[in-house]
Specification:
about 45 residues, alpha+beta, 1 helix, two-stranded antiparallel sheet, globular
């Protein structure tokens, strides 16, 4: 249960990152959590 969020983030990275081993969209902040760095566009 402790790693459930980590596992979900890992799965999401595999789907959206070009290189999941070197993420550029979902970043990890050790001891703090995660941040999403994608640009948002209006349609």
């Amino acid at each position: 249960f402790d790693r459930s969020i980590d596992n979900q983030v890992s799965r999401l990275r595999k789907k959206i990152e070009e290189d999941p081993k070197n993420p550029s969209i979902i970043l990890t902040h050790w001891g703090g959590g995660y941040s999403l760095t994608a640009e948002v566009y209006s349609s």
